[in-house]
Amino acid sequence: MIKQIRLDQFRNIHTATLTPAAQVNLFVGDNGAGKTSLLEAVYLLGMGRSFRTANLKQLIETDQDYCRVIAKLNDDIPAGLQLDSRHGLQIRLNNAPLKKLSELASHLPLQFIPANCHAFFEQGPKFRRKQVDWGLFHVEPSFLFHWQSYKKALQHRNAAIRQNKTDSEISLWHVALVNHGMKIHDLRLRYLEQLLVIFEQVFKTISDGFDDAVVSLRYQPGWPKEKEFAQVLNETIERDRILNYTRAGVHAADWSFKINQSEPSEQLSRGQQKLYFLAISLAQIHWLISKGNHQSVLLIDDLCSELDHWHQEKVLNYLSSLSVQSYISSTNLALPEYLPKEGQHQVFHVKHGQFV
């Protein structure tokens, strides 16, 4: 959670200091006013990258040399970053230079719902794996070790394939791939089975027409389920030589929560898909809270896109009942009217990079 945040020369925001509420924070205004830039600054603070561009220099205000974001996190831990053309991105946490981005992520668990959240359905398994691995990173202490070890072994096996090494030299990496890969597989499967129960409750609460729907888990580990992972690695060496990379493994896993035995992309409307994706993020936040982590931040860019007024109100009511700090942008100036009377809320009217 963020207690206070200051932006200097960040895109079209010359300078701004905000004290956000502990729960729902609404940012309303016209397009280009600076709403999404504020969400981007929070995202950068939690992830070390932008969700809008890979060229971070674009974050610096026109005709300025640098931009800066400084925040006070929960427990009064200071966090800040500065970006300039000479030194690049520099991040400090608790008054010390940041060594690993994972340290930043652990202090500010952050979920982001983009205006076009349909990438979850359209961009393939990689996006969905990232979603579930985010949760595992925060709730399973061993996950990061196994994932980093698996990636290292995978890189070595792929290098051996590209260098046309012998089968035995390629197979040297199979033990590490299987040991760490199966740990990741077990962690993912157990996490998704637990998440399914929470997701079903959240989805049926914030949507409508699905009270009697049957929600089930589809999980593909990254190799044929009827075979052992080690067996598949040995059997596919020649195929992988042709492909020039290792195809089978947890790096190729996929999953979804099916609705009445159908994939959500096949059955749900665009608005329902947005609620589906939001329900997954909220279910993960619920799981973090159940584990004693109350630091989560939820960013929703353009909540009103593809949602009618009734569903906008349902989402705001649900967020107001959670121990999560949310930052929500919208061009709908009437959105604050849908906030419930109870809860800790803040409404910011944004115009030309200024927050009132």
UniProtKB/TrEMBL annotation:
**Where is it predominantly found?**
cytoplasm
Q: Which GO terms describe its molecular function?
A: ATP binding; single-stranded DNA binding
Give start and end of each RecF/RecN/SMC N-terminal domain.
1-331
Upper classification of the organism: Bacteria, Pseudomonadati, Pseudomonadota, Gammaproteobacteria, Thiotrichales
Functional description taken from the UniProt entry: The RecF protein is involved in DNA metabolism; it is required for DNA replication and normal SOS inducibility. RecF binds preferentially to single-stranded, linear DNA. It also seems to bind ATP.
User: Belongs to which family?
Assistant: Belongs to the RecF family.
Stored InterPro entries: DNA-binding_RecF, DNA-binding_RecF_CS, P-loop_NTPase, RecF/RecN/SMC_N, RecF_2
GO biological process per UniProt: DNA replication; DNA synthesis involved in DNA repair; double-strand break repair; SOS response
- Ligand binding (ATP): G29, D30, N31, G32, A33, G34, K35, T36
User: Which superkingdom?
Assistant: Bacteria
Q: Which GO terms describe its cellular component?
A: cytoplasm
Q: Which organism is it from?
A: Methylophaga frappieri (strain ATCC BAA-2434 / DSM 25690 / JAM7)
Q: Which UniProt keywords apply?
A: ATP-binding, Cytoplasm, DNA damage, DNA repair, DNA replication, DNA-binding, Nucleotide-binding, SOS response
Would you tell me the protein name for this molecule? DNA replication and repair protein RecF
Indicate where this protein resides in the cell. Cytoplasm
